[in-house]
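wait is this the right file?? whatever heres the structure
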């Protein structure tokens, strides 16, 4: 079973038998860390604690993560792959709050109430 921890929530997902990127598993659990570089392994912003059946660290991860962070299990969610049924991902917290984003990259703090509103917009006042 693959466990995903975010705050006090633990989500368990069955491993499908394929090597799957950690980012995709997080999305399946409804979690979208920020991926500023689009998952290219260049920004180092999608850090996640990961343990268990994982791919070896990719060269981009070795370049982005200090050895001490790698040693405690920090990985890049965009590049680390889950390679077996026994794995655990934990989203790190920032200022005590879980940082999550939308699939399109917006960032929210986990403990705020989200509300989606459709706002009517007028005609542009000047051409772009
Ligand atoms: S999204 Fe930039 S390193 Fe993962």
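ok assuming it is, sequence goes like this
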């Amino acid at each position: 079973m693959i466990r995903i921890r975010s705050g006090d929530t633990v989500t368990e997902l069955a491993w499908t038998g394929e090597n799957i990127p950690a980012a995709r598993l997080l999305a399946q659990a409804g979690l979208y860390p920020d991926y500023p570089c689009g998952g290219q392994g260049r920004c180092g912003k999608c850090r996640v604690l990961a343990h268990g059946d994982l791919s070896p660290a990719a060269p981009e991860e070795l370049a982005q993560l200090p050895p001490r962070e790698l040693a405690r299990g920090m990985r890049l969610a965009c590049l680390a792959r889950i390679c077996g049924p026994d794995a655990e991902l934990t989203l790190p917290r920032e200022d005590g709050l879980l940082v999550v984003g939308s699939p399109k990259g917006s960032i929210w703090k986990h403990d705020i109430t989200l509300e989606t509103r459709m706002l009517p917009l007028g005609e542009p006042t000047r051409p772009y």
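The pocket of FE2/S2 (inorganic) cluster is lined by residues 35-37, 39-46, 76, 78 (CB under 6 Å). so i think its the right one actually
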